């Protein structure tokens, strides 16, 4: 039990900043008891952080336009689709923290042979099937805290108008002609394949299913005409395709010689009719890629290609899976060149999520269901694990045991428990009130510099799309915070009283300021957790929503600020499994960490 604290603590209280008088705080004389005493009804509203309303990017700067693929609606979303969108959301949230106007585009690709086949298999019509699956994407994005700005469906009337106008521009440029095509076609890829790409028995290397022989009269796009232009583009702008090893793939494809490709289908009814030829529908990829532009059009206006382009094109970043890199880094730029439009600034092809060493996909039937993961572990856990544990750009494998261990160690212990035990000490010894500003508390302390250096590292990693490394840098802030707490042992200092107790009170401010900074720096990855942290620190939702990356600067917490009552911000994941007691031949409960569900009890380990 803490001993009585000497009245010399009043000297510490005198350091409170003059602006606190406007908050009507009144420090009453300290009595000899284990707590710091303040007025009977201190305001529970927190001060705004110093930089909360200051933008980093000028308001007239061009928007940061970020896209995910438009997801194919042959089946409900799987974890591979969710992974791309979680990553895109983290990037979008970081850019917003920098003060940029962000246009985050996602949506669904709803035309093509696979869609009609899937609808028929379900005893449904293509429109009804598309409505159902598209809605399932929107529902999942809500559950995953995806903050998209535009959701485009390729069955939207405005999209069809944009596609037809774009097609006409390419046609007028002399880049569309009619010819017969005879080749091997992968229905799942919606693409004709070169025989040299295929595995044994003419199997597609992506879907591992045999391609079918097809011959039909189609319209073709003169891709070969743009070979030199594409080579020059990549040579002048090596950052156009990232990571760099993906650029090497694209350059290899182009150097091997580009062939014109079919942009219409005579055998597919479910699609956008070719202008002036209703016997053909536009190829699903030629159709879907235009969604990145049609999404920019205003729903209330007559669709217009150039007006849509003026609303934000070119895209700052196309975020895609590596399996559709050819469409985005070769076909799409050539199409845009033909239409006289600007190219996107960057195409980033990330790796696959694997399960049992194989790519997860609806066509392969080995998907990891994101809805199940969210229901079982929660949104923050799902977002954090996949962004922290999969190096962005490379493949990554899912293991439930690893998932639970990582999330428990990082979010529940390193971050959650640090906050919880610090607030517990503050409540016990200081009535949950900060005795000084965080800037004053850290004067002459190199700990503050360590935190700010790690924040700078996190920012650089976010900017470079190194999301795993950004998470690692933020987590390291939590690690140094825990080390500082253990080294300083404020619980012992409070027992000593006098100047030791004053130092302990400052230490708690330092730790809480550290956790506040973690909340902002980790916000792109775990937005809900970050809000719960800020709420514990006494901030309102409006104050949290007003925060920018500048709030990662030290100095946000102010003396006299009242913290909320401590409660867990992230509960450990636990599971009860039945194991047999060999001695008695009966089943007994045992807690393990290999498989789990979110523990609902209001406790955090070590709190």
Overview of the molecule:
It is an enzyme of class 6 (ligase). The chain is an alpha/beta fold. It is built from 21 helices and 18 strands. The protein has a domain at 400-562: Orthogonal Bundle (Isoleucyl-tRNA Synthetase, Domain 1). The strands form 5 sheets. It has a 6-stranded parallel β-sheet with strand order 3-2-1-12-13-7, with helices on both faces. A 4-stranded antiparallel β-sheet has the order 5-4-6-8. Strands 9-11-10 form a 3-stranded antiparallel β-sheet. Strand 14 (353-355) and strand 15 form a beta hairpin. Helix 13 crosses helix 14. Residues 1-55 and 578-607 have low confidence and may be disordered.
General form: elongated
Extended strand count: 18
What share of the residues does DSSP label as strand, in percent? 15-25%
Largest sheet: spatial strand order: 3-2-1-12-13-7
CATH topology of one domain: Isoleucyl-tRNA Synthetase, Domain 1
The level 1 CATH classification of one domain is Mainly Alpha
Low-confidence segments: 1-55, 578-607
- Number of DSSP helices? 21
Mean of residue pLDDT values: 85
Give the class from helix and strand content and strand pairing: alpha/beta
């Amino acid at each position: 039990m803490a001993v009585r604290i000497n009245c010399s603590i009043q000297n510490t209280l005198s350091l409170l900043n003059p602006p606190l008088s406007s908050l009507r705080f009144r420090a009453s004389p300290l009595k000899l008891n284990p707590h710091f005493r303040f007025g009977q009804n201190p305001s529970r509203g927190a001060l705004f952080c110093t930089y909360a309303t200051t933008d980093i990017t000028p308001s007239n700067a061009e928007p940061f336009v970020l896209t995910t693929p438009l997801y194919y609606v042959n089946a409900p979303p799987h974890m591979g689709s969710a992974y791309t969108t979680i990553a895109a959301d983290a990037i979008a949230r970081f850019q917003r923290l920098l003060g940029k106007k962000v246009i985050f585009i996602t949506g669904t690709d709803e035309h093509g042979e696979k869609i009609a086949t899937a609808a028929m298999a379900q005893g449904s019509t293509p429109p009804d099937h598309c409505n159902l699956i598209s809605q399932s994407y929107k529902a999942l994005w809500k559950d995953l805290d995806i903050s998209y700005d535009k959701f485009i469906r390729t069955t939207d009337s405005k999209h069809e108008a944009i596609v037809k106008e774009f097609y006409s521009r390419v046609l007028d440029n002399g880049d569309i002609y009619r010819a017969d095509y005879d080749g091997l076609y992968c229905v799942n890829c919606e693409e004709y394949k070169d025989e040299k790409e295929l595995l044994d028995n003419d199997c597609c290397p992506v879907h591992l299913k045999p391609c079918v022989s097809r011959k039909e009269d189609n319209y073709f796009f003169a891709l070969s005409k743009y070979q030199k232009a594409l080579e020059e583009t990549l040579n002048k702008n090596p950052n156009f395709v990232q990571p760099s090893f993906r650029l090497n793939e694209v350059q290899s494809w182009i150097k091997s010689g580009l062939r014109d490709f079919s942009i219409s289908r005579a055998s597919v009814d479910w699609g956008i009719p070719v202008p002036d030829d209703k016997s053909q529908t536009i190829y699903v990829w030629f159709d879907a890629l235009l969604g990145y532009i049609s999404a920019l059009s205003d729903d209330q206006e007559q669709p217009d290609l150039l007006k849509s382009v003026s609303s934000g094109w070119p895209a700052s970043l196309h975020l895609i899976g590596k399996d559709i890199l050819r469409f985005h880094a070769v076909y799409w730029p050539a199409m845009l060149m033909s239409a006289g439009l600007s190219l996107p600034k960057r195409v980033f092809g990330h790796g696959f999520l694997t399960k049992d060493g194989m790519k997860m996909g609806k066509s392969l039937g080995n998907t990891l269901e994101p809805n199940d993961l969210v229901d079982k572990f929660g949104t923050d856990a799902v977002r954090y694990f996949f962004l922290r544990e999969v190096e962005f750009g490379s493949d990554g494998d899912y293991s439930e045991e690893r998932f639970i261990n990582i999330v428990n160690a990082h979010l529940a212990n390193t971050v959650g428990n640090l906050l919880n035990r610090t607030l517990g000490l503050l409540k016990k010894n200081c009535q949950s009130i900060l005795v000084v500003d965080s800037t004053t508390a850290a004067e002459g302390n190199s700990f503050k510099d360590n935190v700010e250096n790690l924040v700078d590292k996190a920012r650089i990693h976010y900017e470079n799309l190194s999301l795993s490394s950004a998470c690692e840098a933020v987590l390291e802030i939590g690690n140094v915070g825990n080390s500082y707490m253990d080294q300083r042992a404020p619980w012992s200092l409070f027992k000593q009283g006098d100047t030791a107790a004053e130092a302990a009170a400052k230490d708690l401010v330092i730790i809480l300021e550290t956790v506040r900074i973690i909340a902002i720096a980790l916000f792109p990855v775990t937005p809900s957790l970050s809000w719960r942290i800020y709420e514990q620190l006494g901030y309102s939702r409006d104050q949290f929503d007003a925060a920018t990356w500048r709030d990662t600067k030290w100095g946000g917490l102010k003396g006299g600020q009242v913290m909320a009552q401590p409660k867990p911000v992230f509960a450990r994941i636990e599971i009860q499994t039945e194991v047999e007691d060999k001695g008695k031949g009966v089943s007994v409960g045992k807690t393990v960490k290999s498989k789990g569900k979110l523990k609902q009890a209001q406790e955090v380990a070590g709190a």
